Amino acid sequence: MVKKMKKIIICLLSLSMSLSLFAQTSGNSSGQTKVLTVEDAVALALKNNLKVKQSEMDLEILELKNKYSWNSVSPSISLSGGYNGSTGGTLKNFSDTHASTNSWSASGSISLALTPALATTMKAAQLSYDSGVMTLETAKRTIELAVRKTFYSLVYYNENVEIQQRSLETAKQTYESNLKKYNQGRLSELNLFNSQYSYESKIPAVESMKSTYESRLDNFKIDLGLSLTEEIELTGNLEEMVNFELDPAILDQPLDNLTSIKTLKQNILVAENALTATRYSAYGPSVSFSGSVGSSGGLGKEKIPGANDPKLSFSYSANVRIPLDGYLPWSNGALNIESQKENIEKLKMNLANEKTAASITLRNSFNSIQQAKEQLALYEKNVELMQKTYDMTLNAYNHGSTDLLSLQRAEDNLYSAKYNVQNQRYTIISAVLDMENSLGIKFGTLNQK
Prior knowledge:
By secondary structure, this protein is α+β, with helices and mostly antiparallel strands. It has helices at 2-30, 38-48, 50-67, 117-183, 189-200, 202-224, 238-241, 259-283, 332-398, 404-439, and strands at residues 34-36, 76-88, 99-114, 232-234, 286-298, 311-321. Helix 2 (38-48) crosses helix 4 and helix 4 runs antiparallel to helix 5.
């Protein structure tokens, strides 16, 4: 009886745990879908991306170094002290010490060096910090660009899945309609098999596209730092994203925000600061100060007056060093200065060339986007034409005035036209994102209505 009761209790507990687990699982799945806009996706990626976190850590160190870049003029201070002692007496009566010597000493020193390189050292720390800020900004923009492109590619791919799904449903409706005609004796068996094959052959392709979309979506979850088990839904519309007009005035704005331009300007500043440091090293004098103080005294039992009185000493020095090698045109210092001056001139030439190349690239991008939008308008008109053609062909097929092959060809043309529209929309969105990234402006600026 006891064993039966134990079994009943165990069964009840197991059932209770199973029901509890099922309830938890159901509760999680019911509210687990997370709806994400492109802005949400960008925020998640920037928050969880490892590269951004590392760049932020590097920037914190650079900020600390910049804050204390004056530390080369901080004086060097040291303190030291000691105690010495000795005692002596006969071996027989060592405790009766008649001669003992105890002494102590303490000293301190301070030194300070002043060189013209202090200003360039502090400037170098500031430039390093500024470069760190640019590196972090570039890392964030690179990630944001990749996330936005991936987001819209997934929207594009999902819309293509829907197009293929509608094509499948259309083929199914055609097959079911033909099956009725066949059963009524109004359609040949060959036409029925053709419509059946047309319908069933689309099923693997649609399932494959769905599987590919899910796989790409899982990779996107990893990029956002989300769990693979978390369900997400992307909200976006490619048609809305291409409903804009580019303002030609965008081509006349300064190019200073371009990443390549900012990088070259920063390199010029770094090179100029390095040249100044080299000049200071070759021509500039350096001054050093040092001082020390010491004190000592005896603690022995000598009876000599003043023998145990503390003694104090103080010393100091000041030195000036003026290098003269830099004034010799064949010296290493002079040659380094000439080499660095030439390097700066090359950087300035590269900057001028980069501005010209960037201006041409942006103009070409602008023209390409405009041409792509014109091509999109033609594709959209073609969809309207293919839709009318399909509707007329379907009506003719239902009345027996055209064959199944013509209907299938009209259907394929319709969904091919829809695919071209979606592909062109994504191409435009991607080109706009690249142009915004090149200009260094906020993403979403160019396609505002």
